[in-house]
Write a structure and sequence with these properties.
The protein is an alpha+beta fold. It folds into two domains: 2-51, Ubiquitin-like (UB roll) (Roll); 71-103. The chain is 32% helix and 19% strand. The chain is built from two helices and three strands; from the N terminus they run E-E-H-E-H. The protein is elongated, with a radius of gyration of 28 Å.
């Protein structure tokens, strides 16, 4: 049976795939993973999982994040602000200044 091995270098890091081992059961797979993959570099933790139990979902199978428009997350989106929005911002700033003067601020 083939077991996939994932290694974590330091606590808090993510586990990354580092190879596989051939073993009849989980205990032997863990031991082989320690010997083959845990001693080569600094290792905080190892995961072993049966190869048959590891599934994959890639871009062809699904759209990650759905179809929601999340362009607002990118600053480049704000380079083409329409005129009505710019007017709204100017009015809002003027209102804020007016209220600040009434309160005795700057």
């Amino acid at each position: 049976m083939i077991w996939e091995v994932f290694r974590q270098e330091e606590a808090g890091d993510r586990h990354t795939h580092c190879g596989n081992v051939h073993a009849p059961d989980k205990e032997m797979a863990t031991l082989f993973a320690q010997v083959q993959h845990g001693r080569r570099m600094q290792t905080n933790s190892l995961w072993v999982a049966p190869k048959e139990e590891i599934g994959e979902v890639d871009a062809e199978d699904t759209e990650f994040g759905g179809t929601t428009d999340k362009s607002y997350r990118w600053a480049i989106t704000y380079n083409n602000i329409d005129a009505s929005f710019a007017e709204e911002v100017a009015e809002s700033e003027a209102d804020q200044e007016e209220h600040a003067e009434k309160r005795g601020g700057t």
